[in-house]
């Protein structure tokens, strides 16, 4: 019975995302950029996926197995995201939805990040999560809430958001995302771990930090030394 309730919650998340109004908008991009090819002989990269011939489609194209398996949370953040997008479930192509299982160790964090191509609808299955998102400039207002088992919270498309397990036991949540390929930008990793690294002087001024602190953070996030400009 418990497993049935979890499945119904996840199904509900996906159905709500599918019912969101889509009129009045351009089709959502499925990658970070798509440079127009002025020469028709240029190599082309499709914004999405090619479609399989229907006569070769099988039920397995619409099946993903293993979302019942907990993710490994033995990492510095203490969290793990198992994403089921179009790369793992070909039948999602053109349907505009994807799904994620998020496991949290005690006091585990899904750090501040954004999904550039998707709204996220989160449902808590086990544990207690502190969640929040921040609005865009100039207000940068924080909307935050403590969520319990069965609670649902939505993170608007493109806004920075996070989830933090405030309990002493593991937590579990499922998220529906309004894109077959939502993308993710983890803020700290992107800023301090970019390749090649952002110049130290740029980050020192932007964050009002000593250049030695910036260099240390770049080393921590694998960005190497950004150097000076």
From TrEMBL:
Q: What is this protein called?
A: Germin-like protein
Signal sequence span is: 1-24
Binding-site residues, oxalate = 110, 115, 120
Question: Which ranges of the sequence are coiled-coil?
Answer: none
GO MF terms listed in the record are: manganese ion binding
Q: Where is the Cupin type-1 domain?
A: 65-215
Q: Which cysteines are joined by disulfide bonds?
A: 34-51
Which organism encodes this protein?
Answer: Momordica charantia
Key words, A-Z? Apoplast, Disulfide bond, Glycoprotein, Manganese, Metal-binding, Secreted, Signal
Cellular localization per UniProt: Secreted, Extracellular space, Apoplast
What is this protein's function per UniProt? May play a role in plant defense. Probably has no oxalate oxidase activity even if the active site is conserved.
Per its UniProt record, what Gene3D superfamilies does this chain match? Jelly Rolls (2.60.120.10)
Instruction: Supply the CDD domains for this chain.
Output: cupin_OxOx
Give the main location: secreted
Q: What family does the database annotate?
A: Belongs to the germin family.
**Keyword Membrane included in the entry's annotation:** no
One cellular component term from this protein's GO annotations in UniProt = apoplast
Q: Which Pfam families match?
A: Cupin_1
**Which SUPFAM superfamilies does the record associate with it?**
RmlC-like cupins (SSF51182)
């Amino acid at each position: 019975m418990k497993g049935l309730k979890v499945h119904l919650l996840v199904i509900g998340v996906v159905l709500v995302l599918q019912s969101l109004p889509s009129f009045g908008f351009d089709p959502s991009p499925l990658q970070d950029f798509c440079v127009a090819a002025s020469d028709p002989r240029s190599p082309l990269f499709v914004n999405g996926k090619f479609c399989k011939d229907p006569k070769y489609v099988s039920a397995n194209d619409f099946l993903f197995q293993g979302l019942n398996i907990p993710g490994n949370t033995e990492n510095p953040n203490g969290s793990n995201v198992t994403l089921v997008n179009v790369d793992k479930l070909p039948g999602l192509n053109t349907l505009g939805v994807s799904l994620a299982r998020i496991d949290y160790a005690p006091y585990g964090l899904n750090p501040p990040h954004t999904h550039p191509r998707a709204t996220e609808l989160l449902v808590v299955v086990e544990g207690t999560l502190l969640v929040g998102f921040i609005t865009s400039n100039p207000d940068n207002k924080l909307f935050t809430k403590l969520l319990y088992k069965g609670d649902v919270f939505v993170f608007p498309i493109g806004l920075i958001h996070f989830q933090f397990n405030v309990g002493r036991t593991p937590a579990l949540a499922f998220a529906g995302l309004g894109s077959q390929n939502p993308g993710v930008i983890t803020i700290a990793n992107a800023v301090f771990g970019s390749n090649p690294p952002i110049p130290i002087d740029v980050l020192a001024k932007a964050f009002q930090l000593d250049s030695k602190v910036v260099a240390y953070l770049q080393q921590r996030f694998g960005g190497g030394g950004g150097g000076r400009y």
